[in-house]
Amino acid sequence: MSLLRTEGLTKHFGGVAAAEELSFAVDEGEILGLIGPNGSGKTTALNMLSGCLAPDRGRTWLAGEEVTAMKPVALARRGLLRMFQTTRVFVRICAFDNLLTAG
Description:
Order of helices and strands: EEHEEHH
Helix content: 10-25%
Distance between the termini: 26 Å
Oligomer: single chain
Largest sheet: 4 strands, antiparallel
């Protein structure tokens, strides 16, 4: 059984397909890279996987449990979360607490 699996994830913004029919599986211990040019749907894919953006179509499973419609906090509790790229650090809290703000 795959640790993370998607089938047919699709997201459109207006008439533009940001991600279309994305399907893959990642086994435990495996590393998968998501590469492509600007505008190819990498961020959209990550946002759908992490619950930050609902797909128009398709499904996602985490450890055999369908998680397609779950909110980001429920997914984070299961170990799947998205980290946003930022250079901002909260100077009044320690480094560990800065890391916890991502979850």
